[in-house]
Protein backbone atom coordinates (compact mmCIF):
# COMPACT_ATOMS: atom_id res chain seq x y z
CA UNK A 1 0.00 0.00 0.00
CA UNK A 2 1.01 3.61 -0.35
CA UNK A 3 2.26 5.74 2.54
CA UNK A 4 -0.94 7.74 2.94
CA UNK A 5 -3.00 4.58 3.29
CA UNK A 6 -0.50 3.11 5.73
CA UNK A 7 -0.55 6.28 7.79
CA UNK A 8 -4.36 6.46 7.85
CA UNK A 9 -4.62 2.80 8.84
CA UNK A 10 -2.14 3.48 11.64
CA UNK A 11 -4.18 6.46 12.87
CA UNK A 12 -7.37 4.40 12.97
CA UNK A 13 -5.68 1.37 14.57
CA UNK A 14 -3.85 3.50 17.16
CA UNK A 15 -7.03 5.40 18.02
CA UNK A 16 -9.05 2.19 18.34
CA UNK A 17 -6.48 0.24 20.37
CA UNK A 18 -5.95 3.05 22.87
CA UNK A 19 -9.64 3.64 23.42
CA UNK A 20 -9.78 6.94 21.58
CA UNK A 21 -6.56 8.56 22.83
CA UNK A 22 -5.31 11.15 20.32
CA UNK A 23 -1.67 10.39 21.28
CA UNK A 24 -2.21 6.77 20.30
CA UNK A 25 -3.70 7.91 16.99
CA UNK A 26 -0.73 10.18 16.21
CA UNK A 27 1.77 7.47 17.20
CA UNK A 28 -0.14 4.96 15.06
CA UNK A 29 -0.12 7.29 12.07
CA UNK A 30 3.63 7.76 12.24
CA UNK A 31 4.30 4.09 13.00
CA UNK A 32 2.06 3.13 10.09
CA UNK A 33 4.85 4.26 7.78
CA UNK A 34 7.73 2.85 9.84
CA UNK A 35 8.00 -0.70 8.38
CA UNK A 36 8.87 0.79 4.98
CA UNK A 37 12.14 2.13 6.42
CA UNK A 38 13.57 -0.96 4.70
CA UNK A 39 12.83 0.52 1.26
CA UNK A 40 15.09 3.44 0.22
CA UNK A 41 12.52 4.72 -2.30
CA UNK A 42 9.67 4.83 0.23
CA UNK A 43 8.27 8.00 1.76
CA UNK A 44 10.05 7.30 5.06
CA UNK A 45 13.07 5.63 3.48
CA UNK A 46 14.17 8.67 1.45
CA UNK A 47 14.85 11.03 4.37
CA UNK A 48 16.32 8.20 6.43
CA UNK A 49 18.41 6.77 3.57
CA UNK A 50 21.33 6.23 5.97
CA UNK A 51 19.18 3.60 7.73
CA UNK A 52 17.09 2.51 4.78
CA UNK A 53 19.88 1.54 2.41
CA UNK A 54 21.79 -0.73 4.82
CA UNK A 55 18.59 -2.35 6.12
CA UNK A 56 17.50 -3.04 2.55
CA UNK A 57 20.89 -4.44 1.57
CA UNK A 58 21.10 -6.68 4.66
CA UNK A 59 17.55 -8.08 4.94
CA UNK A 60 15.60 -6.74 1.94
CA UNK A 61 12.09 -5.31 1.73
CA UNK A 62 9.07 -6.74 3.60
CA UNK A 63 11.20 -8.93 5.86
CA UNK A 64 12.47 -7.88 9.31
CA UNK A 65 10.60 -4.57 9.57
CA UNK A 66 7.38 -6.26 8.46
CA UNK A 67 7.56 -8.95 11.14
CA UNK A 68 6.05 -9.76 14.49
CA UNK A 69 9.60 -9.84 15.88
CA UNK A 70 10.23 -6.21 14.86
CA UNK A 71 6.87 -5.12 16.28
CA UNK A 72 7.40 -6.79 19.65
CA UNK A 73 11.03 -5.72 20.06
CA UNK A 74 10.23 -2.10 19.21
CA UNK A 75 7.27 -2.14 21.61
CA UNK A 76 9.46 -3.54 24.40
CA UNK A 77 12.19 -0.97 23.74
CA UNK A 78 9.70 1.93 23.85
CA UNK A 79 7.66 0.69 26.85
CA UNK A 80 9.90 2.07 29.64
CA UNK A 81 10.25 5.49 28.00
CA UNK A 82 6.84 6.41 26.59
CA UNK A 83 3.23 6.35 27.79
CA UNK A 84 1.26 3.17 27.26
CA UNK A 85 -1.04 4.88 24.74
CA UNK A 86 1.93 5.93 22.58
CA UNK A 87 3.48 2.45 22.71
CA UNK A 88 0.16 0.72 21.98
CA UNK A 89 -0.53 3.19 19.16
CA UNK A 90 2.91 2.48 17.71
CA UNK A 91 2.38 -1.28 17.84
CA UNK A 92 -1.10 -0.89 16.32
CA UNK A 93 0.26 1.30 13.51
CA UNK A 94 2.98 -1.19 12.64
CA UNK A 95 0.54 -4.11 12.69
CA UNK A 96 -1.92 -2.16 10.53
CA UNK A 97 0.89 -1.54 8.01
CA UNK A 98 1.80 -5.22 7.95
CA UNK A 99 -1.84 -6.26 7.54
CA UNK A 100 -2.21 -3.83 4.63
CA UNK A 101 0.85 -5.25 2.93
CA UNK A 102 -0.45 -8.79 3.47
CA UNK A 103 -3.63 -7.88 1.59
CA UNK A 104 -1.64 -6.55 -1.37
CA UNK A 105 1.35 -8.91 -1.36
CA UNK A 106 3.48 -11.14 0.82
CA UNK A 107 5.59 -10.35 3.88
CA UNK A 108 7.90 -12.33 6.13
CA UNK A 109 5.65 -11.88 9.18
CA UNK A 110 7.38 -14.70 11.07
CA UNK A 111 10.90 -13.48 10.24
CA UNK A 112 13.54 -14.94 10.58
CA UNK A 113 11.53 -17.86 9.20
CA UNK A 114 11.55 -17.79 5.39
CA UNK A 115 7.78 -18.27 5.12
CA UNK A 116 5.95 -15.48 3.28
CA UNK A 117 2.37 -14.71 4.26
CA UNK A 118 -0.10 -12.71 2.21
CA UNK A 119 -2.08 -12.45 -0.98
CA UNK A 120 -0.19 -11.61 -4.17
CA UNK A 121 -2.26 -9.32 -6.39
CA UNK A 122 -1.83 -7.65 -9.76
CA UNK A 123 -0.80 -3.99 -9.99
CA UNK A 124 -4.36 -3.00 -10.94
CA UNK A 125 -5.85 -4.82 -7.94
CA UNK A 126 -3.13 -3.38 -5.70
CA UNK A 127 -4.14 0.15 -6.72
CA UNK A 128 -7.85 -0.65 -6.43
CA UNK A 129 -7.48 -2.12 -2.92
CA UNK A 130 -5.26 0.78 -1.85
CA UNK A 131 -7.67 3.48 -3.08
CA UNK A 132 -10.79 1.84 -1.63
CA UNK A 133 -9.05 1.28 1.71
CA UNK A 134 -7.77 4.87 1.80
CA UNK A 135 -11.24 6.23 1.05
CA UNK A 136 -12.82 4.10 3.79
CA UNK A 137 -10.18 5.06 6.35
CA UNK A 138 -10.52 8.73 5.39
CA UNK A 139 -14.27 8.55 6.01
CA UNK A 140 -13.66 6.96 9.43
CA UNK A 141 -11.14 9.65 10.39
CA UNK A 142 -13.44 12.45 9.23
CA UNK A 143 -16.36 10.89 11.11
CA UNK A 144 -14.39 10.65 14.36
CA UNK A 145 -12.98 14.18 14.04
CA UNK A 146 -16.41 15.55 13.14
CA UNK A 147 -18.08 13.75 16.05
CA UNK A 148 -15.45 15.02 18.45
CA UNK A 149 -15.80 18.57 17.12
CA UNK A 150 -19.57 18.58 17.41
CA UNK A 151 -19.53 17.17 20.94
CA UNK A 152 -16.67 19.41 22.08
CA UNK A 153 -18.34 22.61 20.92
CA UNK A 154 -21.79 21.35 21.98
CA UNK A 155 -23.38 21.80 18.55
CA UNK A 156 -27.09 20.95 18.47
CA UNK A 157 -29.17 19.85 15.50
Automatic annotation (TrEMBL):
The keyword Protein biosynthesis does not apply. GO terms for molecular function: hydrolase activity. It comes from the Bacteria. The chain crosses the membrane at residues 68-97, 135-155. This is Metal-dependent hydrolase. Keywords: Hydrolase, Membrane, Transmembrane, Transmembrane helix. InterPro entries: YdjM-like (IPR007404). It comes from Lentibacillus salinarum. Pfam families: YdjM (PF04307).
Amino acid sequence: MEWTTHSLSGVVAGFALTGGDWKGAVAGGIAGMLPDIDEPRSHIGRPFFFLSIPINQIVGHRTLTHSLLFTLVLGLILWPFLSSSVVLGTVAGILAHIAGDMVTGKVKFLYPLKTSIGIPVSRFNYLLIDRITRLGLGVIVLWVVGSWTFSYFNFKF
